[in-house]
Amino acid sequence: MTSKTVLVERDGGVATVTLNRPEKMNALDPELMSELPGRLRELAWDPEVRCVVLTGAGERAFSAGGDISQMGSAASAAAAGRPKGADGLPLLEDTIDTLRRSQEASLLLHEMGKPTLAVINGACAGASLSMALACDLRIAADHAVFTTAFAAIGFSGDFGGSYFMTKILGTAKTRELYFLPERFPADEALRIGLVSRVVPKEKLRDEARALARRLAEGPPIAYRYMKRNLNLAERGIDLRSAIDLEAEAMMRTGRSEDFMNGALAFLAKKPVTFKGR
Prior knowledge:
- By secondary structure, this protein is α/β, with parallel strands linked by helices.
- It has 2 domains: 6-216, 2-enoyl-CoA Hydratase, Chain A, domain 1 (Alpha-Beta Complex), CATH 3.90.226.10; 220-268.
- It is 48% helix and 15% strand.
- The protein has a 6-stranded mixed beta sheet with strand order 1-2-3-5-7-10, sandwiched between helices. Strands 4-6-8-9 form a 4-stranded mixed beta sheet.
- 36% of the residues are buried.
């Protein structure tokens, strides 16, 4: 079944996943949230895909976050035909399980063994900001605006945002942005290190395409081990364990055809084509 709310386009080794509800600023409705993890899982295991891009349809928004207007119906749909509590609402455990399944999207973006790139083409709020932070790199248009949004409606936050933002910005700044969910512009996001690059709105797609293509042309085996090492360091692995894992990864990548070709090309001052073997 083809999804209308999650579009996937492949161009060489780049797969672009587009949140496709432009009339609702790409807000995350139940269909989109249930569909997205599966599409990302397919791309994570596809050997032909070497870089995954996440973006939103149109120019107004990357995504405005969860669709508040449908949150009640989402809980009801998730628990359709299941037991309800004394208050007539879906059982709490059912709603928690539904959200956990949706949040697999953030885990996949962060942990898949290939680079992920968030292309932020407008407003980026709440859970969608969390997913952007789950990506390895973020590039934003100069008209983009950001907000955690959760405290404004009495939510605590989801999709790993508190984890990713703390790792990127540190605990003090993260607490400020979560407790006081003001909107801030792209240049401020760049200044504090929330995004990697900010480019003019009209150049975003071209700049993002060039960056994604560069990542897709990189060494996939090395990227896989590199990303593993970085993710483990992020989680606080001790130095000795990190060095041991780096030694293992260096020797594994050093036996790859990619390394042999890369070393020869470097010495000959010629470009190299990495084949992932």
